[in-house]
Amino acid sequence: ALSIAWEDGIQRVILASDCSSIIRRIQAWARDRSSVGCVVSDFKVLASRFLSCSFKHVNRLCNAAAHVLARRAELNPCNSHRGVIPDCIQDVLCNDVT
Question: Is the dihedral of CA 69, 71, 73, 76 positive or negative?
Answer without folding.
Answer: negative
